[in-house]
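Many introductory courses stop at the sequence. We go one step further.
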Amino acid sequence: MLDMKFSLKLLLSVAIFLIVSIDVSKAASEEEILSSSSFDFDTSQLLNQQPNKSVTSPSNKLESGQYVNKARKGRLLPGEQRVEYLLPSSERNLPPPYGANLFAGGYESERIDGVNDDYLIAPGDKVSIWMWGAINFAEVVTVDNQGNVFLPNIGPVQLANTRASQVNKVVTSRIKQIYKSNVEVYVNLLSPTPISVFVSGPVIRPGQYAGMPSDSLLYYLKRAGGIDADRGSYRTISVLRQGKPVQVFDLYDFLKKGEMPEFNFKDKDVIFVSEQGATVTVGEGARNPFRFEFKDETAQGSELITYARPLSKISHVGVAGTREDGPFSVYLPYKKFSNFTLKDGDKLLFNDDWDAQIYDIKVSGSHLGPSHYTVDKSTKLYDLLNHVEVDPELADFENIYILRKSVAEKQKEMIDQSLERLERSVYTAPVQSTGEGTIRTQEARLVSDFVKRAKQIEPLGKVIVSENGNVANILLEQGDEIVIPQKSNLVHVGGEVLMSQSVVYNENASIEDYIAWAGGYSERANHERILLIHANGLVKYIDNPNSGWISSSSDNNSIKPGDQILVLPKVDAKILQSVKDMTQIIYQIAVAANVALD
């Protein structure tokens, strides 16, 4: 008994809430559209207007000051503003370091054919030497530990530290000292000797790796698993030879400019990756949202801009970090950021914080001239209509309406909320018997299918601004579409009729006549749910004398050219308990999207 009472209370609450919601929605839209201002715009002003020449397009003069928050002992100074909530709050969610993708490829398995011309000959290299003419000689010789190759009747030839491109010249010159004529010489370096290079410091797999002297720094770092993202430096990587640095690499130069110093490794060289230096983290608003490392303890904002590349629309920069006197945060204009000093651990957010001064408005339907206008944010509907030229013979300028994104989003939100309440009422309904459980299961399946299809409907977001030839002078919003309907002598009949079609307007015809011309009602038609959608977007009930539907004024039954008659479907009360809820949602969808959902 208690469950039945609870169920009745729940169903009653849901029904009341749905009714209140739809009434509030309808009242809000009418209050915004109809009663915000009187419909006193003379539509004749649209006649004989000149094509658009210039609609206000003021320059943006937004100025912003600097807001600083050092949070001294948890207290803010007067005028300070907290901005930490705009920035990353957890070290665990930090982006990867700039350049981490250097070690994502599989290039460590790629080998280079041939020898670099700048390669320096080292002990163990093999050289092929041919001599012909007065003497014949062909042999592959090896550079010994002293850096020489030995040739019969000639002696040792010093080749150590000779460039590969100069080997032929050096050997030929030495041979010509003994065989001055009638001897031709050809020398070729076959292949460099493999070497072992040690990789040390904050890398994933430090150790000893084999390679060629001409292999790049990236090759050996990739063999070692790459630089540790949290500990290793991408800016200070040294090559040590006999304990002394002979070359220092900065991978930022390679990433930004494509510059990589020419360098040949030698056996037993050590690649040492330094500890990570001072870093700052860039969150949103940049083309490169990474962690960036500086060579010094501090850096200027201009240096970070070079690597982070903020988006062109950025107006402000938020910086949060720690200074000597505690937590620190600042929110400053982008132009001032170039001279701002960054320190280790700072977190940044590049923000588009301009107050939009310009709106893009679209004009569609029956009009002449351009279809897109750029207007000042304070522009009202009259101001723009004065720049729109129309043909009075074709344009139905008395039934102008606006399609607004914010209204469509609100309609979508209200429909989704109603659908969620419908699902909860069905899925949480108590079951008293096995037979009732079977009915509930079937109902749940039907409701689930209905909800799935209903959520796919996209509301139009119509704003009613015209009635009886008058237009309300409302403020325009970004993305508004002003629709000027084309004059029509047709009446469109759709929804639950046998054959949806358009019928020529007849001033003596009734609603039933138009429905009859469309083949009459379908089996699923709800005779009491007939809507009349006027050309200006207004939706009204039809007083159907054959259905006993609630009485309404005679104005509600007046059909005009360009109107649409929409017959809604009827929910089967024999199998569904939540008939009223579904019927109410179907009505919401029909009003918001001009669609009869089956």
